From TrEMBL:
UniProt cross-references to SMART domains, sorted A to Z: HNHc
Family per record: Belongs to the Rv1128c/1148c/1588c/1702c/1945/3466 family.
Biological classification of the source: Bacteria, Bacillati, Actinomycetota, Actinomycetes, Micrococcales
HNH nuclease domain boundaries: 428-480
Keywords, alphabetical: Endonuclease, Hydrolase, Nuclease
InterPro entries registered for this protein in UniProt: DUF222, HNH, HNH_nuc
CDD domains in alphabetical order: HNHc
Statement: the UniProt record of this protein carries the keyword DNA-binding: no
Region: Disordered, residue numbers: 510-534
One Pfam family, short name: DUF222
Entry's Gene Ontology molecular function annotations: endonuclease activity; nucleic acid binding; zinc ion binding
Name this protein carries in UniProt: HNH endonuclease
Length: 534
């Protein structure tokens, strides 16, 4: 089919007869007749690529028009308008219900469009035009160069940065991300890798997170632990003989899991087989297994009551304390405890000598951070292959546990120097500390030595030595919270002593930490012929 359009004057658009509704209807019918007549499998490679590009460009224009139309209907259907609301006039309770009925879309999609429209579409709530909050996004949508999905990513990033960075920086991020999403080269993207190439939404999301991490590092590691993202792991109801697992993990735990998974998957030798050690291999015998965690009682991963939601009805979600009647500051839910257990399992497996190597080295998660940011106590870390940044607090913990290496780069980005690992306890030191402490030294914690980390009592940055007399074992949870939980540690004659929080120890008395069971000799057995010996 060949379409012939009458020549139009330069810089002008052809005029159409009839109303806008009729024109859109005619255009839709024309497009349908063209698309219905295309046999995609009969196109050669070049035509197939060109057709897809043309359809996507047209789709972006239509998506932008639908977004503007939905936003306009949403303004007309505001409940604040009372009887004048378009929703009330059509018997709907609110604007979302009106849009879902009118457009035949889900409430979720309606809310999605309205949310983006509030920031990227010009509106007229009281008959007066209100410019879009993010004009560069709005311009990209109208031109058809920017897709709705990319616009949502950019708008979400800018909203998260709103009020946290200077307006000029916010404008710079908007222009840079829109340029990356549309493949344009602007002053904000000149010299950056990939400048001039259209970034797909997945790549754009990673770039947006990088901008956010650099301009607002505190946003990735809030001071309030209550709002910081935490890993969770939840088991669902038994289905077809299997328990579904629902998990949300932090970027660092994702990096640990990815590294170990990739190591086993890339191992050229036969990987170990994990089989039940108890008698019997019937899978049904494994139902209702008890797994010992941070609490002193095992958590039962059995079937929940019939009809319960498999993920929301977590039997441990309302259990902030362990069975110990003394509150030790552990406010984790059951899902968070399971995620921490999984993390410890992965870390222990990574240290196991039988774990396959990758590229000749043991599986190690590398966290990168700028040296200036580290010295000044700011910024974030980055794990290769992981989009989201790692908080500065976790970077310090990783350095305390795993050590650090300094890398110097030249003006051309070439590596000038790679230093040795520093600030890290050796394997022999860890063995000696484990023999002394036996596990996490916090009272009531049952995490064994093999799942614990070595902590500098006097921080390394405060000239604390990396030796046995300055290292103690802490589980991941207590290591992570040692600076905020109220527990204090000091060394006296080579042995750790503990001072608990006021709620745990009202007398505020320094007490020796528990040590390994093997460090206490057994009493000499009683002998009748020597009654004076006990």
């Amino acid at each position: 089919m060949t379409l012939t359009v009458p020549p139009a004057a330069a810089g002008s658009m052809p005029e159409f007869e009839g109303s806008r509704v009729a024109v859109i209807t005619q255009a839709g019918a024309l497009l349908a007749s063209v698309v219905d007549g295309v046999r995609f499998s009969h196109l050669d490679d070049g035509e197939a690529v060109a057709v897809m590009a043309a359809l996507e460009g047209l789709g972006r224009k239509v998506d932008a028009a639908r977004l503007r139309s939905t936003t306009d209907i949403g303004v007309r259907a505001e409940t604040d308008l009372g009887n004048g609301s378009l929703a009330y006039k059509n018997g709907c309770r609110n604007r979302v219900e009106l849009i879902t009925q009118l457009a035949g879309i889900s409430g979720r999609e309606a809310k999605r469009r309205l949310k983006l429209g509030e920031t990227a579409v010009e509106r007229t709530p009281l008959g007066l035009p209100v410019a879009a909050r993010y004009p560069v996004i709005a311009e990209g949508l109208v031109s058809g160069e920017l897709g709705v999905e990319s616009a949502e990513i950019i708008a979400g990033t800018l909203t998260a940065l709103q009020g946290r960075v200077l307006p000029d920086d916010l404008d710079r991020v908007e222009r840079a991300l829109v340029a990356s999403a549309t493949g344009e080269i602007t002053p904000e993207t000149v010299g950056l890798p990939g400048a001039g190439i259209r970034f797909a939404p997945d790549m754009l999301r990673a770039q947006a997170l990088e901008w956010q991490g650099r301009l607002d590092p505190d946003g990735t590691a809030p001071n309030d632990d209550a709002v910081e993202a935490k890993s969770t792991l939840t088991f669902g109801l038994l289905r077809n003989g299997l328990y579904p697992v629902h998990a949300n993990v932090t970027p660092e735990l994702r990096g640990i899991m990815d590294t170990l998974f990739d190591t086993f998957l890339s191992a050229r030798s036969r990987t170990p087989r994990f089989e039940p050690t108890e008698p019997g291999n019937d899978p049904s015998e494994l139902d209702g297994v008890y797994i010992d965690g941070p609490s002193t009682k095992g958590e039962r991963f059995g079937a929940e009551p019939f009809g319960a939601d498999p993920f929301s009805a977590d039997p441990f979600s309302a259990e902030p304390f362990s069975v110990d009647t003394r509150f030790d500051g552990d406010r984790r839910t059951g899902g968070e405890k399971r995620a921490d257990i999984l993390r410890s399992v992965f870390e222990a497996a990574a240290r196991d000598p039988q774990t396959p190597t990758m590229g000749g080295a043991a599986p190690t998660v590398m966290i990168h951070i700028n040296a200036s940011d580290l010295d000044q106590g700011r910024g974030v870390g980055w794990i290769d292959g992981i989009e989201a940044p790692v908080s500065f607090r976790r970077v310090k913990e990783a350095i305390c546990t795993g050590g650090a290496r300094k890398v110097l780069f030249g003006d051309n980005g070439d590596v000038l120097y790679l230093g040795d690992t520093v600030r890290c306890f050796t394997a022999k030191q860890r063995t000696a500390i484990a023999a002394r402490d036996g596990g996490c030294i916090i009272p009531g914690c049952t995490i064994p030595a093999r799942w614990s980390e070595v902590h500098h009592v006097i921080p390394w940055q405060k000239h604390g030595l990396t030796n046995i007399d300055n290292g103690v074992l802490l589980c991941w949870f207590h290591h992570r919270t040692i600076d905020t939980s109220g527990w204090r540690i000091r060394m006296i004659k080579g042995r750790p002593h503990i001072l608990g929080p006021l709620l745990f120890d009202p007398t505020q008395t320094w007490r020796p930490a528990h040590n390994h069971r093997a460090n206490t000799p057994s009493p000499e057995p009683y002998r009748p012929e020597r009654p004076w010996r006990t």
